[in-house]
Write the structure tokens for this entry.
Amino acid sequence: MTAETPPGGTEPSLIEYPSDFPLKILGHTQPGFAQTVLDVVKRHAPDFDGTTMEMRPSKKGKYLSVTVVIRATSREQLDALYQELCDLPMVVMVL
């Protein structure tokens, strides 16, 4: 496997595809947050097993972090997933 060169770019990706890729999504604790994150992840990674999703509340319970590990197949897939997650008003950040 080789690193991909992004379309129109000159630098290859540092990630070799396919690859297991962890994502941590931090958002405000509210009903439906984890399900919404799961729905978005499954749209971009249909083979993701939702039972592997990890959730951790912040110390005071204001935030919830959701960690998923997807099988990333391309930079375009990751870029689209990051963008859709970041566009959600309930999401504070995606790492």
